[in-house]
Amino acid sequence: MTNPLLTTLGRTGLEVSRICVGTAAWGVTSEVHGLTVPVEDAVATALRAFEGPLTMLDTSNNYGDGEAERRVGLAVERAGGLPEGFVLQTKLDRDPATDSFDADRMRRSLDESLERLHVDRVPVLYLHDPEHIGFEASMEPGGPVEQLLRMRDEGYAQYVGISGGPSKMLRQFVETDLFDVLITHNRYTLVDRTADHLLTAAADRGVGVINAAVYGGGILSSWPRTSDRYHYAPASPSVLAAVDAIGSACEQADVPLIAAALQFSLRDPRIHSTICGMVHPDQIDDTLRLAAIPIPDDLWATIDRLAPPRSDWADD
Questions:
Q1: What is the bridge-based pairing of β-strands 56-58 and 87-92?
Q2: Taking CA atoms, which of 134, 139, 253, 273 is between 20 and 30 Å from 76?
Q3: pTM score, two decimals?
Q4: Is residue 225 part of a domain?
Q5: In this structure, is the dihedral angle defined by the CA atoms of residues 253, 226, 237 and 212, taken in order, positive or negative?
Q6: How do residues 236-273 score in pLDDT, each as one tens digit?
């Protein structure tokens, strides 16, 4: 039976689900996310993902100081290995103590990740948050990008990607044509369209595109809203007003705000998969339900009209 959630991740040819399990909050505690995720909940979430129909899970070396990867690795062990075709991806991170982003640190980051995850290689390996050193330093001979490409050539990854925040910087990486996949976060949501040009640049090159943080750190996950923060910082009055106006419009249309926030990403043909943070196995089924809620075209038109002006986007 064909899985209607599957799509091809750009030029990689990998089949992935259009929803990807995110593990950024899977540490012992996550101050950024404001919650604590028990080990058994995290492991159970990964095991539930392995059952399908989702076929993709995203993690990183520095999520929870490595605890997120360790928990994914526990699930891999309990499952007797990854299911065939399941895409488990991780990222190379700077040293948590020294902030080093040099080639030696990239090698240690890879070794740590593979050991925690109980795998020998990953389908996609990313350079994570290069904004900490910038495009030029990342691309220097002997630098982190060169090391990432070497890891791919050595067989530790089938494809390589770039994952970060500032869209203009990410576009520089995309335009090198060295990267097969892109992850952007918090820059393409109901209230911020910063990544629009980045998405087009990636699509024009056949780069796989994964969009993350579509709930803006939680402010777009419920209405009436329970937060005044977007992207883990205080939101501007204009953004708060837009969230409230969009939330009200969704309520009038009998559509949960969170469903609109999710489907805003899912409906864009330039985006192949959307990372949704999930901390309990029930959230997988909840997210699948939200993805299937019908949303009328006139509501999308209203949402576009109510979106904040560019001056209130990250616009970076």
A1: parallel
A2: 273
A3: 0.96
A4: no
A5: negative
A6: 999 999 999 999 999 999 999 999 999 999 999 999 99
